[in-house]
Amino acid sequence: MKEIRRLSSEKDFTDFTDIVGNAYPGFNIETREQKKKFVENSMRVQEENPLVTFYGVFEEDNLLGGMRYHDFKMNLLSTKIKVGGVGLIGVDLLNKKEKVAKAIMTKFIEDYRSQGISMAILYPFNPEFYKKMGFGFGTSISQYRVKPSNLPKGKSKSNIKHIRGDDAKKLLDCYTRIYEKTNGLIEKYEREFQLLFNNPKMKVVGYKKNNEIKGYMVFEFKPSHDKNIFVNDIIVNQLLFEDQESLMELMTFLNSQSDQINNVIFNIQDENFRFILEDPRNGSNNLLTPVYHEASIQGTGIMYRIIDLKGIINELRNHNFNNESCKLKITTRDSFITDNDGSIIVDFNNGFPTVVDDKEYDVEIKLDIADFSSLITCTVNFNSLYKYGRALISDESYLKKVNNIFASDEKPICITMF
């Protein structure tokens, strides 16, 4: 009989490390030293970070698979909600296709639902696999490959400084101010920024003025020529800023690197970033039919899942859904969570939602829980779901109103890796 419990002993973590190493060969956990380091790091994280816990699926003391829980707080539509994150899901090679992964996900969802948490998030190793489990797509990431000279060159970069460990608190303060007003961002702590500075590959520069950081960029160098060590690319992993001035100085800093930097590669969750560029083409010289120049490549990553439908509406009771008034019946299909498989009626009164027991309603929408998860986070609008056959509506005359209820100019942004 399978048992799921917290990893506690060094043997537990050693067995889990073997599973992770086989499940994710790209992690390069192969040598004795690499495995020892992974075990030590995992045990230390669980001991020192109360928001991270490792669990395993056991059968007669044999570890079949495991996962890592993350207790997060996320800004969803200006409402701070607790969310459960799961990562490092791995199943022993000998136990594939034995529903171990399903047992892992079932336990994860049950544990967070029991805490009164309404939403779960993850990064998928296979988006199709988790879409079938009710996880909806989040905002795509666009990768732009740009020549430094094609970035804006402002009047100054005098406020751009190297940011080091003793500035971790100021960096956190900057992030927190942005987190407070950005849909989808996850709350961070000073410890996370200290760990960032412990990674020698990562460089941090920021706009620092009057002893306050108003924007920053996390980047690394990557060789771009196998026979010339002096030519590299800059990979921008994080770019956050509070105003145009800080952004322009950060861009001017990058513009000034053209002597030794071949390309600046941005990984960014903003399809409109191309408007800052003089030339958005990525250097491939590819043309897409009929005459569209390849500018960026796109990838899907973070996924959201509502694990308590009524709960998420209640958590958003103080959010104004664009001043709309409508008694909306929401019918969701959920093969994984019985309580979500059915209908609720939400009374939107001048934008503010309340789950009601009434049988009367103005209009009904029907969709999968995965798509509603994407809709409620504002990753996608209702018109698009309806257009592509992912949602139904009982009365098309309400289409504009329903779309406006869930409409937002701000798709969710997540830069927290787990």
Automatic annotation (TrEMBL):
PROSITE patterns: GNAT. SUPFAM superfamilies: Acyl-CoA N-acyltransferases (Nat), SCP-like. It comes from the Bacteria. Its EC number is 2.3.1.-. Residues 2-158 form the N-acetyltransferase domain. Keywords: Acyltransferase, Transferase. One of its GO terms (molecular function) is acyltransferase activity. The keyword Cell division does not apply. It is an enzyme of class 2 (transferase). InterPro entries: Acetyltransf_17, Acetyltransferase_Eis, Acyl_CoA_acyltransferase, Eis_dom, GNAT_dom, SCP2_sterol-bd_dom_sf. The keyword Zinc does not apply. PANTHER family: N-ACETYLTRANSFERASE EIS. This is GNAT family N-acetyltransferase.
